[in-house]
Design brief:
602 residues, alpha+beta, Methylamine Dehydrogenase, Chain H, 2 domains, 8 helices, globular
Length: 602
């Protein structure tokens, strides 16, 4: 009897002896999909939570859809427990709906914009909705659940088909608008078409005067303004707006010569070098070339700033068109195609080097192969003079320097820093500090007659340059990870650097590379030094202009006002007692109250 009882007790329960359910009746296994989606969102937003530098945030946003899509495919095909028809047809339906949505977006907004919406937004949300629907509907029979899943995917794709990608900010946060909303560029073009054409500009010989600003970041490309003292009490003496109007997209700054204000902008399918009246904002002349460059992050428009030299203006377009124009009339003196001259490809983010003129030669970064990284042209005729260097990646501009009394052109690339003799292009010295697969944007900073700072989003390095006879050598003084500027330039005041570590505005000691203070109030802005007052004029990414004390002891903002609307990555300019600012949508001029020995002078 006991044997019978033991046999009954050891027998498996009746339900365990039942045959397994066929795939058509099984509930899908959901938990692997939940884990995949959680990991995907961690990859996307984790770098932001950890306050990592912007490029790492971009990599997180970029790789998140890859991680999510790969994980969901593996889960759905091999671990969902569904019958194979559902495992294959549901992903196929999702892809088909996505292709239709992408085609609809691309028809009106272009392939890049549509792919950006899908990559940065839609893919993550489609995968998330997929898993959430299954979590929310466990009680539904599978045929109804499957139909609801397909409907949810159609609605999700349809929502994103109604959006237009508007680029990202300095923290890699994307921006979208309804696809049918007018673009700022379209509004500008409509307004420009309604205006009468400007009268022909008068021929005259323009020369630099004290207080002018001849090109990118000023006479020495260091964003340093001397000979100017302004009121810091912007409550009693605020900057007075003289003019403000829309401009075409573009991410360069201004050159200012007297009452001539030069910049570059996109005008529909043309790139334009434009001269405005600095006093009124009215257009004096514009030179246009049929070219349009655009990419998802910053959108359309030229990237460089025109350079004034010897009554001429030199401007490099985003696709490599180098123009020399008469500064008074805009008439073409000569033009070159950088791509044809060196065999380079148009860079991923466009040509961004502002031309530099030294010793009768205009130099630009081209990134060409076979020793054609930097090109030198005769400033008067446009004839090629020299080429040199081996850097292929870079969005920095040629930089003037005088080290140990010797004039030279510095060029920062992914290889490091190279110094060229300006007239003939001989390589004087180079300092290797490679960035694997990366690029440099920030200008090198000349610290004194023997030291240079090279910075990128991986850190900053102080380099000591030795000169003995005809030979040059370099040595590392220090390398710091406390200062990692991405595309925002910095200024030097006394023994301290002031600039952007990612999206944090910071003060760094020149002696050891260690930080003194930081603030996140300006996001990915730009800075200009008013050296006579030890003041930093910061133009924030949100378009605010602020005055900050250039003091290492502590951060102190003394004044602020709203100068522009919209994303602002362009460098500010102070010239002739005025503040000139612009971004990809508008430009403005403000009169600054100057100070003399007795107080405000106007």
């Amino acid at each position: 009897m006991s044997d019978v009882v033991s046999e009954i007790q050891s027998a498996p329960p009746p339900e365990s002896r039942l045959p397994p359910l066929p795939p058509s009746l099984r509930r899908p296994r959901i938990w692997p999909g939940v884990g995949v989606v959680a990991v995907m969102w961690l990859v996307a937003v984790g770098p932001r939570w950890l306050e990592l530098e912007p490029f790492l945030r971009f990599l997180g946003v970029f790789w998140a859809p890859i991680v999510g899509t790969a994980g969901v495919v593996v889960w759905w095909l091999f671990f969902s427990r569904l019958r194979w028809s559902d495992r294959l047809l549901t992903p196929a339906a999702c892809v088909t709906i996505g292709v239709v949505a992408c085609a609809a977006m691309a028809k009106s907004d272009g392939v890049q914009s549509s792919m950006s919406v899908i990559w940065f937004y839609a893919a993550r949300m489609v995968l998330t909705v997929w898993v959430l629907w299954l979590i929310a509907t466990p009680s539904l029979r599978w045929p109804l659940r499957r139909a609801g899943l397909l409907a949810a995917l159609v609605l999700t794709w349809g929502y994103f088909a109604c959006l237009r990608f508007e680029g990202v900010d300095g923290q890699m946060n994307g921006s979208v608008q309804w696809r049918w909303a007018p673009k700022a560029e379209d509004i500008y073009l409509a307004e420009a078409a309604a205006k009468p054409a400007p009268a022909a500009a008068a021929a005259e010989t323009l020369t630099l005067q004290p207080g002018d600003w001849p090109g990118f970041r000023g006479p020495n490309r260091d964003d340093r303004r001397t000979g100017v003292r302004i009121s810091t009490d912007w409550t009693r003496h605020p900057p007075r707006q003289l003019w403000r109007h829309r401009v075409g997209p573009g991410w360069g700054s201004f050159a200012v010569v007297g009452n001539h204000l030069y910049t570059q902008e996109q005008r529909g399918n043309d790139e334009a070098v434009v001269c405005y009246n600095a006093d009124t904002g009215g257009e004096i002349w514009a030179h246009s070339d049929p070219a349009r460059f655009t990419e998802p992050v910053a959108g359309p428009g030229p990237r460089a700033t025109p350079t004034f030299h010897d009554s001429k203006v030199y401007a490099l377009g985003a696709k490599g068109q180098l123009n020399c124009l008469d500064a008074a009339t805009g008439q073409v003196v000569w033009t070159r195609d950088v791509v044809a001259d060196c065999g380079a490809k148009v860079p991923q983010w466009g040509f961004a080097a502002s031309p530099l003129v030294m010793n009768g030669v205009v130099t630009v970064f081209a990134g060409g192969p076979d020793g054609k990284s930097v090109l030198g042209y005769n400033a008067s005729s446009g004839d090629p003079v020299w080429h040199g260097g081996d850097g292929l990646l870079g969005y920095s501009s040629p930089h003037p320097a005088k080290l140990d009394g010797v004039e030279q052109v510095l060029m920062a690339t992914e290889k490091g820093l190279t110094a060229f003799e300006p007239a003939h292009g001989e390589v004087l010295w180079r300092h290797d500090w490679p960035l694997l697969g990366m690029f440099r944007v920030v200008q090198p900073t000349v610290l004194d007659d023997s030291d240079v700072l090279l910075a990128a989003n991986t850190g900053a390095r102080r380099i000591h340059v030795n000169h003995s006879g005809d030979g040059w050598t370099t040595e590392e003084v220090w390398t710091s990870g406390a200062f990692k500027p991405f595309f925002n330039d910095l200024v030097l005041d006394k023994d301290y650097l002031y600039g952007f570590d990612g999206v944090n505005f910071t003060c760094v000691s020149l002696e050891d590379g260690k930080g003194r203070w930081r603030t996140s109030k300006y996001a990915a802005g730009q800075v200009l030094l008013l050296a006579d007052q030890d003041l930093l004029l910061v133009l924030s990414e949100q378009g605010d202009a602020a005055l900050v004390e250039a003091k290492p002891e502590s951060y102190k903002e003394v004044a602020r006002f709203k100068a522009l609307e919209g994303k602002t990555w362009n460098h500010p300019v102070v010239a002739g007692g005025k503040l000139f600012v612009r971004n990809g949508e508008e430009a403005a001029c403000y009169e600054l109250t100057e100070m003399d020995a007795t107080g405000p002078s106007k």
